Amino acid sequence: MKSSSPLKWFGSREGLYYLALAFLLAVILPLVLDPFRLNMVGKYLTYAFVAIGLVMCWGKAGILSLGQGVFFGLGGYCMAMFLKLEASTPEATAIQSTPGIPDFMDWNQLTELPWFWEPFHSFSFTLIAVIGVPVLLAFVIGFAMFTRRVGGVYFAIITQAIAAILTILIIGQQGYTGGVNGITDLQTLKGWDIRTDEARTALYFVCVGMLFLCLFVARLVQNRKLGRILVAMNAQEMRVRFSGYDVAAFKIFVFCLAAAFAGIGGAMFTLIVGFMSPSFIGIVASIEMVIFCALGGRLSILGAVYGALLVNAAKSGFSESFPELWPFAMGALFIGVVLAFPNGLAGLYRSYVMPLEDRLFKRGKAEAQTSAEPVATTASAEKTDDYDPMINTYSPEKS
Amino acid sequence: MFDGYTSSELMSIFAMQGFAGLSLFSVFVLMAMGLAIIFGQMGVINMAHGEFMILGAYTTYLTSSFFQSYLPGLFGGYFFFAIILAFLICAALGALVEWLMIRHLYHRPLDTLLATWGLSLIMQQAYRSIFGAREVGVDLPEWMMGAFQVTDLVELPINGLFVMIIALSIAVAVYLLMYRSGWGKNVRAVVQNRPMAEAVGINSAGIDRATFALGCGIAGIAGAAFTMIGSTGPSSGQAYIVDTFLVVVFGGAQSLIGTIISAFGISQAQSTMEFFLSGSMAKVLTLLVVVGILMLRPEGLMALKVRR
């Protein structure tokens, strides 16, 4: 793509989509919703990080990971460990038999902090670990699998097994991890109480900001040659390999990228929700994350955000009023998104709403011409320049 | 982890846990057989396999209640009716699912995975609505209770033995069907080269449907057998699905022998380690070892030699 000035980009159609999302998340929702609901939207948004990662990894590069919950959870646990240590000062835990260690360790007869908890006293280490730990694990898995050309369903099953392993491990090692309850009772972040309404609203905006950061990183990747190679690899892996590209390296990269996004999402989740538990990591949670991405449209990073928001909002809505209907709706969603609209919401938008938009744009252009303005409208000029994330379509007919 | 045990004690521990592992082995074999057919032969991931198994289990439960109320004289033999019924019901549902859903997705294996996951959610919730969230169990007929005393330490419960016999007979039957019958030859032909198989007049769509139905039917038998050794709840199937997939992949997807060997290895490793470690650590270690080996040898234990 040509380098265009940022200002012009915001006037383009793609820019408008991003602006609309930013307006919705940063202006409309905070105005309309009370702090409790806003906090819930913040929680849904943390899943959008995972969904964006899945768009890159599954939608673009064709690597279906059923273990994104692992990376989400690792990021979340790193943050939770830091917050828990901050909450477990010797003064606050004076009634324990060993003051200064988290309460669940004391209940499990641990007398000193395990070695891997030690570094989480440092906030800067935690911030690095939130991304570093998931990426490291993703790199190890990716390196082992992709250099041996394992892909497709085998990869999906093995990532699912890893999600199972991590869940069982966390539940089993109660003294070190908090077990099935997870790490709860988190209070302050560097002395700042995260449980107040103001703090939660502030964290919501931090989450929106981080989300846009991730969106722009993802957009950067997809618009470069890198992104095109990922798509090419998905369609014709052999041809890309024979063209001299190291397919495994690209796959490892995109898998690590998705893991990094998921890790950030997990850390934000811990901050916003105030605890972390193995139920957000396991097989069921991980595979639900795929549906966020699939509903939004597996090729659209913006769609992924809407998908995560919608599915989670529907889930809370259903669970509040008809809990027994939700699994049916969810199951139907899985089947429908695969059989009826494989391009998800983005695909529906493109086939039904975009033609209307086109007509609108055209009318604008006609008016501009009648008023004898000498320039072609920016909209039509930009359209050819900018890669539109909604343009490329997932075609199920490929082999 | 072996500290404080004498070698003779260790021997009997291994023997005891080995026999305990055999019952897990039978469950693995029964579940993995159906999966191995569907996944190995068709390349389709059926995430709802566990739910088909539970359907078989509920069929058995209903049959046993029916026999108890209306045919108490024949109660000793209800299980054989239940097995046949479970097979037929699951196979019929399997054929329906194949026709409605799977056949549109053969060229998209990852999407099949998601669609069948959706199916499994729906089936689970349906069981919960119909049978309730509580686990149900069946009454065993008289002749299936009790145990054989092999040595002082080792005893074999008859129901466990019976399940093992079912597992092995299913394995043998599947082997004969796949490798010694004309139909099996057609299936393998379609797997190896679909266009050529069609060219020589094999109805490949029919083969697909029958294969899928057969796999689901075997899951139903697995479920029926499962009721003999445990109780059934709406989400019991999900608990086994990851293990079973690992069994199939670990064994080498297209090899039935490999599936049996890996089911044996995994169940024995897990059951032996359970004695020395906590149950969860035993499971973690087993799964880690399996995943580790799969990373080094992605084609599984008994790989079909194919040139790519």
UniProtKB/TrEMBL annotation, chain A:
Transmembrane segments: 15-33, 45-67, 123-146, 153-172, 202-221, 242-261, 267-285, 292-313, 325-349
Family matches, as Pfam families: BPD_transp_2
Name under which the protein is recorded: Branched-chain amino acid ABC transporter,permease protein
Comp. bias regions, Polar residues: 368-381
GO MF term set: branched-chain amino acid transmembrane transporter activity
Main subcellular localisation: membrane
Keyword Membrane in record: yes
Originating species: Marinobacter algicola DG893
Region (Disordered): 367-399
Membrane topology according to the record: Multi-pass membrane protein
TrEMBL record, chain B:
Name under which the protein is recorded: Branched-chain amino acid ABC transporter,permease protein
GO cellular component terms, semicolon-separated: plasma membrane
An example Gene Ontology biological process: amino acid transport
Annotated signal sequence range: none
GO MF term (any one): transmembrane transporter activity
Membrane topology type: Multi-pass membrane protein
The organism's place on the tree of life at top rank: Bacteria
Transmembrane helix keyword on record: yes
Entry-linked CDD domains: TM_PBP1_LivH_like (cd06582)
Transmembrane intervals: 20-40, 52-71, 77-97, 158-178, 212-233, 239-263, 275-296
Any Pfam family hit: BPD_transp_2
Keyword set, alphabetical order: Amino-acid transport, Cell membrane, Membrane, Transmembrane, Transmembrane helix, Transport
Family classification: Belongs to the binding-protein-dependent transport system permease family. LivHM subfamily.
Organism ancestry: Bacteria, Pseudomonadati, Pseudomonadota, Gammaproteobacteria, Pseudomonadales
Localization in the cell: Cell inner membrane
